[in-house]
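2024-03-11 09:14:02 DEBUG pipeline.ingest accepted 1 chain
2024-03-11 09:14:02 DEBUG pipeline.ingest length=357
2024-03-11 09:14:03 DEBUG pipeline.predict start
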Amino acid sequence: MKYYQEIPVIRSIAAILVVSVHVIAGLYYVGGEFTNTSIGYINQLARIGTPIFAIISAFLLMSMVLRKGFDLRQFIQSRFSKIFVPYLIWSSVYLLYKYHVENSLNPDLSISSYFLYGNAHYHLYFILTVLQFYLVFPLLARFKKNSGLFVALGASMIINYLWLTFGNVTTDVEWINRFVNGRSFLLNWIAYFMMGITYAVYYQEFQDLLKRHRTSLLLVSGVILLDLWISIDLARLYTSTNISNLIYIPFVIVVLNYIFRRVRSDATAMKLFQAIGTHSMGIYLVHPLVIRLIRRSEWFEYFQSGSMFVLAMIMILSISMGISYAISLLPFGNYIIPVPKRRTSPRQPVDIQQVAS
């Protein structure tokens, strides 16, 4: 079985970015304003984290198909246990927390609607997005190394752009209107999943490109990311579905691959990134609950200062990863939080499975 050592590094960085968005929103965004300008910029820059998760999810799934072939029955069983069951469990956890602890459930919404629209809590919409991707993946898995894949990638970017720009469907069925016009709808993200599939199919060619054109790729990527930073306007906040991310994200993937090449020479750093990457799904599912508990504790006042942001991040990441690890030790813990198994041989890279799986 083939292992991709850069994936836990890329995925752990994506997890840190996503957590930072929610930490800032939960602790440092008050009255419609960020308590610190620098933290506001970090919040906006970190919005690239979720699209990176989408790319890595599709990459790992497609790379598995390229190695083993596609078995529909096995695929359904795997996705059911690794994504659908955890989605149901964690949606229930957050609903129970809101009902018993915060008393904040919307009385106008039925319980089933929270599961249907992915809004049991603000981060669970993306798990619903991944589930939609799994529904169409049996068709996408048919793409091979030819021009058809690039045509599909281009088409997905156009569709994604048009949907984000003009998408507003109105039918006579209210639940359909709400579903397709929600942030979880697949067409808001389809380009990133196709990027991940293309990345997997042309993995070796991409790595060769990174080796041959390191200087020019870093220069162009640096300019693109500088534009991303300059374009941030705290008076006009954007989300992870910002249209500009369709351009920014491919260059971010390039930069992250180069970051991995620097990190892999440091054994301690690699172990840290591997640990975060391995528990990235658990961190993603758990961290909003940790943030809410901190807000209700006496620690909240201590962490409200912008100077405590880094410490707050370390604490929330550590607690979330600790919870993920503890759950993974339970007899059926993998149905609650899917955590990939590590290889026992120290000579082998870590076996990284799906993220959103």
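2024-03-11 09:14:41 DEBUG pipeline.report Confidence is low (pLDDT under 50) at residues 344-357.
2024-03-11 09:14:41 DEBUG pipeline.predict end
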